[in-house]
Amino acid sequence: MDIFLDYLKVFAVGGLVCLIGQILINKTQMTSARILVLYMLVGVVLEVSGAFEYMKEFAGSGVTIPIMGFGSNLAKGALEGAKTNGFLGAVTGGLSSVAAGLTTVIVCGFVFGLIAKSRSKKI
Length: 123
Prior knowledge:
Blueprint: H1 2-27, H2 32-49, H3 51-59, H4 61-64, H5 67-97, H6 99-115
């Protein structure tokens, strides 16, 4: 029964994140790119303030899988890099903490680019 409640929390929190994004799309003039940047910045702010850790304990991948988790990892890497290497560590630490995910995205994009056929959208 505990695993069912864990899945329910992940689904509810992840669904709430998506619901807020959909409301922003429907009720504002914000583009999806701006909403993605907003969510990433929310993840950064939550990580810097320390609130993201509590959200991660409660909802697990409901908050770490969306773009907020990416922002959190960037901020966490920058903070750790700043502690060890100063300003240069703050600049490079964020990218080094998300390097595996970015590499996976680039490789998958390349492979699918080779497989898929591009064509113009028919209107």
